[in-house]
UniProtKB/TrEMBL annotation:
Any Pfam family matching the protein: PHB_acc_N
Domain PHA accumulation regulator DNA-binding N-terminal stretches: 7-67
Domain PHB accumulation regulatory, first and last residues per copy: 71-110
InterPro entries: PHA_DNA-bd_N (IPR012909), PHA_reg_PhaR (IPR010134), PHB_accumulat (IPR007897)
NCBIfam families found in the cross-reference section: PHA_reg_PhaR
Name of this protein: Polyhydroxyalkanoate synthesis repressor PhaR
Leader sequence segment: none
Source lineage: Bacteria, Pseudomonadati, Pseudomonadota, Gammaproteobacteria, Lysobacterales
Length: 164
C-alpha cells in the first residue's frame, strides 16, 4: 500500500527535511503545505516520534507573536484550564466541529455574496464597462445618423426648399 502522506523529518538541530523534495524547508514552507491542504506528518529523524502537532503549534505561536493575534489571552487561559479537566477529551472534537461549522457558514456567505454581486468585483467592472461602451456607441450612431440627415448646404435631406 502506497503512503500518501508527505514525510518531513525533524533533526536535533531543529532543521526540517522534506523527504518528498529531498531538501530542507522552513516553518513558513510547512505553513504553506497547510494552506495548500497537503497531507503531511513531521517525524523525529532519530526516534520516528510524531512531532506534527508540536510543529503546527510552533507555527501558530510564531504567527500569534506577529501582527494581529487570533487567540486572546482569555481564550488561551480557558483552553489551558481544560487540560486535566474531566471534559478535556470533549474539547478537541468540540472545537473541530465548531470551526468546521464556521468554515461552512463562511463558504456559504461567500457563495451568496458572489451570486449577489454577479461573480466577482472584476466581472462587475467588466460588465459596467461593456454597458458604458454600448451606450457610447449608441450615442455616436445617433449623432452620425443625425449628421447624415443634414445636407452640406445646410438644408435637410428629403426636405423642400423654400420658394419665395
Amino acid at each position: 500500500m502506497a503512503q500518501n502522506k508527505r514525510t518531513i523529518k525533524k533533526y536535533p538541530n531543529r532543521r526540517l527535511y522534506d523527504t518528498e523534495i529531498s531538501s530542507y524547508i522552513t516553518l513558513e514552507e510547512v505553513r504553506q503545505l497547510v494552506l495548500d491542504n497537503e497531507d503531511f506528518e513531521v517525524r523525529d529523524a532519530k526516534t520516528g516520534e510524531d512531532l506534527t502537532r508540536s510543529v503546527l503549534l510552533q507555527i501558530i505561536s510564531e504567527h500569534e507573536e506577529k501582527g494581529q493575534p487570533m487567540l486572546s489571552p482569555q481564550l488561551l487561559s480557558q483552553i489551558i484550564r481544560f487540560y486535566g479537566d474531566s471534559l478535556q477529551g470533549f474539547m478537541g472534537p468540540y472545537l473541530e466541529r465548531s470551526l468546521q461549522v464556521f468554515l461552512d457558514q463562511q463558504q456559504q456567505f461567500r457563495t451568496q455574496l458572489n451570486s449577489l454581486m454577479g461573480q466577482t468585483p472584476w466581472a462587475m467592472v467588466n460588465e459596467l464597462t461593456e454597458r458604458n461602451m454600448d451606450a457610447w456607441k449608441t450615442m455616436q450612431r445617433g449623432l452620425l445618423d443625425a449628421a447624415a440627415q443634414i445636407t452640406p448646404q445646410g438644408g435637410s435631406r428629403g426636405g423642400h426648399k423654400k420658394t419665395g
